[in-house]
Design brief:
- This protein is of the alpha+beta class and 435 residues long.
- The chain has two domains: 2-104, no CATH class; 116-435, DD-peptidase/beta-lactamase superfamily (Beta-lactamase, 3-Layer(aba) Sandwich), CATH 3.40.710.
- The protein contains 17 helices and nine strands.
- The strands form two sheets. A seven-stranded mixed beta sheet has the order 3-5-4-9-8-7-6, with helices on both faces.
- The longest helix is centred in the N-terminal third of the chain and has 35 residues, at 2-36.
- It is globular, with a radius of gyration of 28 Å.
- The termini are far apart.
């Protein structure tokens, strides 16, 4: 009896040992069977982007008390992906049913900008002792009109960055306009958003030099490389079919990053040209496709070009200045890239510089200026800046888009004149508010 129990116990032990030894092999074979039923192919660069974002956003193990999953900052639930299946999987009912979870599970490969609630901009009017921001903006428009320049092509936003948020004045601030190189500020914020999420690595995926070249010097080659890194796409010859659709969706993720954070009326998916590094003087191949393709245009031909509103630009400047753009550290890094000296002894030695013909030219030499500007011969001048007095008692964001060719060459003093007028008026407001 004892020998029989011993043999039985030995057989049971061997059975358990065989079971646990074979379990990894069973799992591996099951995985192969499942994988053979899925035919879901993406370009290598897009697959890498998906895997990185999944690691950053899809693997959260934190939950609220009610069982709701908590995702890392910058993550959101995107539209589920419908996998393409091989004919063999369609004829195998067990495999087909097993794949259903793929269509019902959310895909977390879409990041979004961290600030989803717009600031409460409030139009301020004049008091007995100080001009309101709306009166200051009205004065800007009058100055432009007095110069004989077209105000229909003009948009202005002004934000008081002192005190409680946020005194505001505007003119045609909801009108989408081509932003030229001002768009690069959005790309820089998106880049730091991906750094924060871990989907890109600083000085690995994008060099620190390219950050400065794009943000401070407005270099189109550096900007092109950053757009490529952000979207895992490249410029090149035209694409067709699924390759084109994947490339288009990846490039338009630049838009969804901010649209999902309640930034309306923007399109920032187009590179800026020329790009000497690529030998491109204008849009070519798939970049031209992006402008001309019917899937891009839809019902809005404006999607053929980048566009922004001055209000959206003013919001981003406010969030940068208050340390909300991704994080306080990243916001400070953005401002360091945007800093330019208004001292003629400094900027007149720089070639090119961001001062002559723009906001900084007529400002006092000790003013703090953080600015991003745009210029084309056909589309005029654009600028978005944070301007502060040396003591920070006066601090404001000023955005002006002047989208007519006459602003490019007919009067190069309009932006400096406007900036100095606004600075003086804001200084007066600060003095009147001081105890």
């Amino acid at each position: 009896m004892t020998r029989s129990r011993h043999r039985s116990s030995k057989r049971s032990f061997l059975s358990r040992r065989v079971f646990w030894s074979a379990l990894p092999l069973v799992g591996f074979v099951s995985g192969l069977v499942l994988a053979s039923g899925v035919h879901f192919v993406r370009q290598r660069t897009e697959l890498i982007g998906l895997m990185r974002a999944t690691v950053a956003c899809g693997l959260s193990t934190n939950f609220k008390a009610d069982g709701t999953r908590i995702f890392p900052r910058g993550c959101d639930v995107a539209k589920p992906i419908e996998p393409l299946r091989s004919p063999w999987a369609e004829t195998n009912q067990a495999i087909a049913q097993g794949l259903d979870f793929l269509t019902s599970a959310p895909d977390y490969n879409q990041l979004r900008y961290s600030v989803t609630t717009p600031p409460p901009f409030q139009t301020t009017t004049e008091t007995e002792t100080a001009p309101g921001l709306q009166e200051i903006v009205d004065g800007v428009v009058q100055q432009v009109a007095d110069k004989g320049l077209p105000t229909a092509a003009l948009s202005v936003s002004l934000v008081d960055l002192t005190g409680d948020c946020c005194g505001y004045g505007a003119y045609q601030d909801q009108q989408p306009r081509y932003p030229a190189s001002v768009v690069k500020l959005f790309w820089l914020v998106a880049l730091y958003g991906q750094y924060e999420a871990g989907t890109l690595q600083p000085d690995v995926d994008v060099s620190v030099d390219d950050e400065a070249l794009m943000a401070h010097y407005s270099n189109n080659g550096a900007s092109s490389r950053i757009v490529d890194a952000l979207t895992q796409t490249e410029s090149g010859e035209e694409l067709t079919g699924g390759n084109w659709q994947h490339w288009l969706a990846a490039r338009q993720s630049l838009n969804t990053y901010f649209l999902r954070a309640n930034y309306p009326n923007l399109n920032i998916a187009h590179k800026t040209f020329p790009i000497p590094d690529l030998g491109l003087t204008e849009r070519h191949g798939r970049d031209r496709q992006l402008a001309n393709d019917e899937n891009t245009l839809g019902a809005e031909p404006a999607l053929a070009r980048n566009y922004l509103t001055t209000q959206a630009m003013a919001r981003l400047l406010y969030e940068i200045d208050t340390g909300q753009a991704i994080s306080a550290n990243w916001s400070d890094r953005i401002k360091q890239h945007l800093r330019h000296s208004t001292d003629p002894a400094v900027w007149q030695r720089e070639d090119p510089n961001a001062i002559a013909g723009f906001f900084g030219e007529y400002l006092p030499p000790d003013v703090q200026l953080f600015t991003k500007l745009g210029f084309t011969f056909d589309d005029g001048r654009q600028e978005a800046a944070i301007i502060a007095s040396p003591d920070n008692q006066t601090r404001f964001a000023l955005v002006m888009f002047a989208n007519d060719a006459v602003y490019s060459y007919e009067d190069v003093t309009v932006f400096p004149t406007v900036s100095r007028y606004v600075y003086d008026q804001m200084q007066y407001r600060s003095a009147e508010r001081s105890p």
